[in-house]
Amino acid sequence: xxxxxxxxxxxxxxxxxxxxxxxxxxxxxxxxxxxxxxxxxxxxxxxxxxxxxxxxxxxxxxxxxxxxxxxxxxxxxxxxxxxxxxxxxxxxxxxxxxxxxxxxxxxxxxxxxxxxxxxxxxxxxxxxxxxxxxxxxxxxxxxxxxxxxxxxxxxxxxxxxxxxxxxxxxxxxxxxxxxxxxxxxxxxxxxxxxxxxxxxxxxxxxxxxxxxxxxxxxxxxxxxxxxxxxxxxxxxxxxxxxxxxxxxxxxxxx
Length: 254
What we know:
This is IclR family transcriptional regulator. Helix content is 47%, strand content 19%. It is of the alpha+beta class. The strands form two sheets. A five-stranded antiparallel sheet has the order 5-4-8-7-6, with helices on both faces. Strands 1-3-2 form a three-stranded antiparallel sheet.
C-alpha cells in the first residue's frame, strides 16, 4: 500500500481509509494475513489499525471466522450521504422477511451522484457471494440499474445513462431500450448480473407520494432460482412488498 508523502494530509488517517477501501474492493471478508499481504503494512501496525477501526465500528471482526468486513458505522454514513435514512429504516424489515421467505438475497439500491448504489443487504442463509456489498455502484444493465434508467427523472440520470450506454455494444442498447417498455408497464426488471456469473436478479421500484422513484428493491440469487417474470409467485410477493413500502411514503398508483 503506497503512502503519498504530502504535508497537507494525515498519513495514519489515510492508511486507515485505505484499509477500509481494500476490504471493500475485495467484496468479501478478509483474514488478517490476507489484509497484511494486500496492504504491505507491518503486522504490528496492522493490528493497531484493525483494532482501532473495529472499535470505531468502521470494521466488523467475526471472531469465529477470524475475518474482517465493513462495519455498521459505514451504513450510517451511507444513509446520511444518500439522504435515505427513512427509506432504509422502512425497507430493512422487508429485506429480512423476503430473504427468509425466499432463501434469496434481498437488497435496496438508492440513487447517488455516481449512479445507483447498494444501501443495504440482507443475505440468504446459503452464503451466496453476489460480488457486491453496501456502497457498490450498480451498472445500467443490472436489474437495479434498469429500474433507475426507466423510472428516475432524466434530469438526474442523463450523464450516468450516457456514460453507461457508451460501455455496451449497439445491439445491447437497442435490446435495453425495447425492454424498458415492458419494465415501465410491469414495474419489473430482470437481469443476468454482470458482476458475477451464474447469478441473476430482479428489481422492482419504490415510489413516494409524488410518484418519484425512491429506490429499487432487488432480489439476487443463482440464476436457476431467480424468477424472470413478474407473474411468478415470488415476483408477486416482492411487488406487493414494494407497493406497501411505497404506500407508506404516500404513493398512490395511477
